[in-house]
Design brief:
By secondary structure, the chain is mostly helical. Helix content is 47%, strand content 9%. A two-stranded antiparallel ribbon has the order 1-4. A two-stranded antiparallel ribbon has the order 2-3. Helix 1 (47-58) packs antiparallel against helix 2 (63-69), helix 1 (47-58) packs across helix 4 (107-129) and helix 3 runs antiparallel to helix 4 (107-129).
């Protein structure tokens, strides 16, 4: 986990809040539209993809198989993935415990939920690695 400070570096455009409700699927064209770009930055090409996978894991999909099978994450070391997940979990724990935002009444609940599902998947991954 000592890699954590260096992980967010890279030159790929990052959404930094990619989750199912920020993706609109166009059934006619088969395209996916990413919305709600509040945290635009640059970083590693795989970061948004990895941040989306805890939702897949929570929904019963094999997130590890998705991780291994994607060109976005092929070759990314497990320790880098786990460090990124630990950073996300920490951020969501802090966010979920912050004061409520009157204009976004579900934001803190979302933070707590996301922290739980990230920690769940990370815990499973670390148990297998041990």
């Amino acid at each position: 986990m000592e890699q954590a400070p260096a992980l967010p570096t890279g030159s790929s455009v990052q959404h930094n809040d990619l989750r199912p409700d920020n993706i609109i699927l166009d059934s006619r064209s088969g395209r996916a539209w990413i919305c709600d770009w509040n945290y635009l930055a640059t970083g590693p090409a795989w970061a948004d993809w990895v941040a989306l996978l805890p939702y897949a894991h929570h929904d019963g999909l094999d997130a590890d198989a998705l991780l291994r099978g994607s060109t976005l994450s092929v070759g990314v070391p497990d320790d880098a993935v786990d460090s990124w997940l630990a950073l996300l979990a920490a951020y969501m724990v802090v966010s979920g415990g912050s004061p409520e935002v009157p204009t976004s009444p579900h934001l803190r609940a979302h933070g707590r939920f996301t922290a739980r599902i990230v920690i769940d998947w990370l815990s499973e991954r670390r148990k297998r690695a041990a």
